[in-house]
C-alpha cells in the first residue's frame, strides 16, 4: 500500500483530493495538513511515499516546506505532486524534482496521470537499491525531464527524447528528432543536470545524447565529427575529444 499525505489550507481542496484518491485503491491517505507546520510534523511522523502539496500555505509556501524537510534530514523524502492555482511556480517545482504540477481546477484524467507517474516512480525506487540511482556531484538525482514554457504552454520533455543540445548566445537549443526548443539557459547549468553516462559534451557549444550517436569519425580537415542516427553532424573540438575516449574506457 502506498501512503500519502494531503497538504492544503483549504478544507474543500483536501476533500476533493480524498474523493479522487478513492478511485485509486493502492493509495492510503495517512493524514492531512492545513498549515506548513502540521505538514512537516505529519511527514516526519508518518514517512509517506507521496505528498500532495499546495504551493500557497498560510505560514510557509510549499517550497519552504520541501526545504525544511530536506534540511532536517528526513530519512526518505516523499514524491511530491504540487497542487496550485498559479502556473508561475511550475519551473521552480521541477527544479526540485517534483513528480508533477497540477493546476487547479484539474480534471480526473489529469489527476490520475500525475498520480500514476508518482506510483511508477515510487515502485521503481522500492525495487532498485537507492545507491543505483544516478546522482550528480552534489547528491541530487539527474533530471529525467526538462520543463519549460513555450508559446503559452508548459512543456514536459523527457531527456531521453533529446538528440543534442546547442548553445546560441544566451540560449540553448534543445533538438529532438521532430522539433527544436529554444530555452534561456546556460550549457554549463544544463550539463550539470544531465546524466554523463548518457549525455556527453563534445564541444563548447554542443552536448549529444549518446543513444542517438551513430559514429565518431575524422573529417577531411583533420577534426572529428559526431554523426547522429538522423544524419546530422555535430563538430567535436580537440579539447573535448578525450571525453569520448574516457567514456569508451569505462
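-> sequence recovered:
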Amino acid at each position: 500500500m502506498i501512503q500519502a499525505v494531503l497538504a492544503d489550507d483549504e478544507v474543500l481542496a483536501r476533500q476533493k483530493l480524498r474523493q479522487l484518491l478513492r478511485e485509486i485503491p493502492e493509495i492510503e491517505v495517512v493524514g492531512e495538513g492545513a498549515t506548513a507546520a502540521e505538514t512537516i510534523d505529519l511527514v516526519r511522523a508518518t514517512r509517506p511515499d507521496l505528498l500532495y502539496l499546495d504551493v500557497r500555505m498560510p505560514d510557509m509556501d510549499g517550497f519552504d516546506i520541501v526545504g525544511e524537510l530536506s534540511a532536517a534530514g528526513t530519512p526518505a523524502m516523499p514524491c511530491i505532486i504540487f497542487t496550485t492555482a498559479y502556473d508561475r511556480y511550475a519551473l521552480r517545482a521541477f527544479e526540485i524534482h517534483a513528480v508533477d504540477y497540477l493546476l487547479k481546477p484539474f480534471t480526473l484524467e489529469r489527476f490520475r496521470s500525475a498520480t500514476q507517474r508518482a506510483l511508477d516512480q515510487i515502485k521503481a525506487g522500492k525495487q532498485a537499491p537507492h545507491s543505483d540511482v544516478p546522482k550528480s556531484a552534489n547528491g541530487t538525482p539527474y533530471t529525467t525531464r526538462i520543463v519549460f514554457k513555450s508559446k503559452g504552454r508548459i512543456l514536459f520533455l523527457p531527456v531521453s527524447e533529446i538528440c543534442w543540445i546547442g548553445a546560441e548566445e544566451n540560449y540553448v537549443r534543445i533538438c529532438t528528432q521532430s522539433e527544436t526548443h529554444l530555452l534561456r539557459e546556460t550549457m554549463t547549468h544544463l550539463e550539470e543536470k544531465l546524466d554523463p553516462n548518457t549525455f556527453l559534451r563534445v564541444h563548447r557549444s554542443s552536448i549529444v545524447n549518446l543513444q542517438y550517436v551513430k559514429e565518431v569519425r575524422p573529417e577531411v580537415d583533420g577534426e572529428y565529427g559526431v554523426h547522429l542516427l538522423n544524419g546530422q553532424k555535430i563538430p567535436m573540438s580537440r579539447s573535448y575529444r578525450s571525453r569520448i575516449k574516457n567514456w569508451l574506457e569505462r
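The CA atoms of residues 21 and 75 lie 25 Å apart.
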